Amino acid sequence: MAQKIVIVGGGTAGTTVANRLARTLAKEIEAGQVEVHLYGDQSVHLYQPGYLFVALNMGDLDDFIRPQKTLVHPRVHWHEQSIKELDLKHHRLITEHEQVPYDLLVIATGSVPNFHYVPGMAEVTENFYTPDGAVRLRDRLNRFTEGRILIVQDMPHKCPAAPLEITLMLDDYFRKRDLRKNVEIKYTYPIGRIHALQSVADWALPHFIEREIQYETYFNMERVDPERKVVITMDGAEHPFDLLISIPIHQGAEVIRRSGIGDELGFIPTDRTTLKMIDQEDVYVIGDATNLPISKAGSTAHYQAEVLVKNITDRIQGRPETTLYGGKVACFLESSLGEASFITFDYHHPPHPAQESEMLHWFKGMYNELYWLTARGLM
Q1: 134 shares a domain with 241
Q2: CATH number of the domain encompassing residue 52
Q3: Which intervals hold domain FAD/NAD(P)-binding (predicted)?
Q4: If pLDDT is split at 50, 70 and 90, which confidence band does 378 have?
Q5: What is the rounded CA–CA span in Å between residue 167 and residue 195?
Q6: Residues forming a β-bridge with 5
Q7: Mapping DSSP to helix (H, G, I), strand (E, B) and coil, where does residue 190 land?
Q8: Which pairing describes strands 238-240 and 76-80: parallel, antiparallel, or unpaired?
Q9: Domain that holds residue 195
Q10: Looking at the domain assignment, is residue 359 inside a domain?
Q11: Secondary structure (DSSP) of 319-344
């Protein structure tokens, strides 16, 4: 009987792992010794970092969407189905229509923003973390000619650099429209600096000062008053806005919370180097679904996929699993509409932002085009 590898989640992490396994285990799959199954609940694949560019009118949403089935290798069994429960005790998934046994399970269910976590936020906020939100924010920005933009965020959330990026890009956006003098931009952060990574905060702060971007730290939201257009923080202060852009707290996928296998936010306890679920020898976790204290970003999933695929391949082929994930992450940092910086870091080496340049911005644009090769497991 074939060994059954089941991957849950059709985003970057799950699709990349499935496609890479289709190549590294090609011989075993063709011989009927291994099956790779990928489960996802959407017919389309969304390149989420593209939403930022949609919001700033630098790309169309269609540029960042592909039919999921066109990205999946022919050796992978693609199932467009919702998973109701992950039953780890009995090594099976439960869908609407069937119970699916597995030998090895890869959980790549991602994370989702919770706009209802802060009372009142969902009624009035704009965002660039959902496809509809990015389009709606683009339209709001096109009409926005004066007033106060307030950018707020809760932790954890995907792509920790994105709030800084949109702040710096909005400054350039309104300068190019000759409206910056009429628009007040205020960025907020919940701890005592403007980014969790000290070197990134140190990189961004001079830009804020030079461009007269307001900022406030230790900004922890209690609620939003949609009628009065104010954010009330836990210290009782009120912060008015004309346009609220929020990056809400993210949580693990509903199926994780429903299955009772995650922490209080629905993230899965994961070994930081082997990427196995704690106390589960046959379950691997990748990408945003883990509870690891590292960036929830596409590059994280990319580097984790390399480790996961190597270890699963070694396991199937009878070798010990010796490849360890070192915490590697890489990220472009857009500093304007035409320049970017770049960072890379891991568990043992902090990031050192590169000098921003047009070339790095161009590289980011190129990667937006090349991402589909990553999803196909070719990069």
Answers
A1: yes
A2: 3.50.50.60
A3: 4-152
A4: confident
A5: 13
A6: 36, 104
A7: coil
A8: unpaired
A9: 114-250
A10: no
A11: ----------EEEEEE-SSS-EEEEE
SS3 39: strand
Tens of pLDDT, residues 82-105? 999 999 999 999 998 899 999 999
Closest CA to 108 of 367, 298, 331: 298
State which of 250, 265, 289 marks the end of a domain: 250
Q: What is the dihedral of CA 233, 236, 239, 244, to 10 degrees?
A: 30
**What digits encode the pLDDT tens for the residues 141-196?**
999 999 999 999 999 999 999 999 999 999 999 999 999 999 999 999 999 999 99
Q: Any idea what DSSP says for residue 68?
A: G
Average pLDDT over residues 276-293: 97
- Tally the domains of the chain: 2
pLDDT (tens digit, 9 = 90+) per residue, 37-54? 999 999 999 999 999 999
Q: Where are the beta strands (DSSP E) in 81-138?
A: 83-87, 92-95, 99-101, 104-107, 111-113
Hey, how many other C-beta atoms are within 10 angstroms of the C-beta on 12?
28
**pTM over 0.70, yes/no:** yes
Q: What does 210-234 look like in DSSP terms, one character per residue?
A: HHT-EEESS--EEEEETTTTEEEET
**Residue that terminates a domain, selected from 250, 283, 298:** 250
**Residues 122/239, Cβ–Cβ less than 8 Å:** no
For residue 337, is it within any domain? no
Mean of all residue pLDDT scores within the chain? 97
Nearest to 346 by CA among 276, 292, 310: 292
Burial 286-313 (b: 16+ CB within 10 A, else e): bbbbbbbebbbbbbbbbbbbebbbbbbb
The whole-number pLDDT of residue 268 equals: 98
What residue has token string 């496809």?
131
Alpha carbon distance, N-terminus to C-terminus of the chain? 32
Tokens of 119: 């009372």
Q: How high is the pLDDT of residue 235?
A: 97
